[in-house]
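Dear colleagues,

As part of the handover before I leave the project, I'm documenting each prediction I ran so the next person doesn't have to rerun anything. This entry is a single chain, and its sequence is reproduced below.
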Amino acid sequence: MSHAESVTPVHQAVQAPLPANHLVDTLLPVRPALVDRGSAVRGRPGMVDELLSGPDAVAAVLSRRQGLVRGSNLVLAGAKDLLAELTAAGVAPELVVYLGSALPAADLPAGTELLLFVLPEPPEPGTAGIPADATWAGFREVAAGLTATSTALFVESSAIANWHAAHTHCPRCGTPTDVESGGWVRRCPADKSEHFPRTDPAIIVTVVGPDGRLLLGGGGPVDARNYSTLAGFVEPGESLEEAVVREIQEEVGVRVTACQYLGSQSWPFPASLMLGFTAVTEDTQATPDGVEVTRARWFSREELQEAVLSGEITISTRLSIARSLIEHWYGGRIQDLAGA
């Protein structure tokens, strides 16, 4: 698979000055949770209906994988009033999910109850209770400018909405399933089986050769300029380390001799969790498989910085875990073309 971009700003995780290819407990520090997802309470029957009938719960809105955004924030509207206006306009949510309650680290009053409305169609701003100054946007379009709380809510909302969209029927018997536990369980009414949200683990790796050079690759046209870390999904029965060794061997024919976990980031578009590693190899030649990877290239630190500044290549954006892994190897911040 091609590398996936992360969903939380990570450029702040790389602090200068740092020794090149330094090792820490995790590359990406563990930040305080912003939302209590309420796993102990969301299974109570009628909980969502109670929140919808009360005055205090607020709701985020998603439609066709786009969120409702205003400035640097995901729009959070009064759930009761918004539901009434959407219903009156004929665009009632096809799914309502309990997201949880705001924790003290969030930029919301602690305890604020949070819901998600998933709409079949996105109403025009200024209609159906949608604020006129709001816009519909995909996460990639706005991630760089969102607050930490809005990022967390957008990610959680997208992950659960994507799961529901792909798991409408029982995998055992094909019967349409019912939504339970505030949107976190689907139950088959025929065989009573329960089905829970899933996440697909994927490893993403910086490969360092015996001379300290970094191996980057890319897919698509062989003359394309974009290069990034190598990545792939973990297969059933594999450990993460086994997946690192297998994917690097399959994609570029390089044998990994050791690897170390550095950190992770969620990318629920539709359902991935990117697990970042750095790895070492004694090999100096890389052979792209021609399918997942069509080009591969070794870079010294000086060569990589020069290639980026000259526009010869592009590398992953600062929102991606791939960029943080590359800068971890580099030992500091890599300057982008035009000072980006």
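The longest helix spans residues 148-166. Residues 58 and 79 are 5 Å apart (CA to CA).

All the best with the project,
I.
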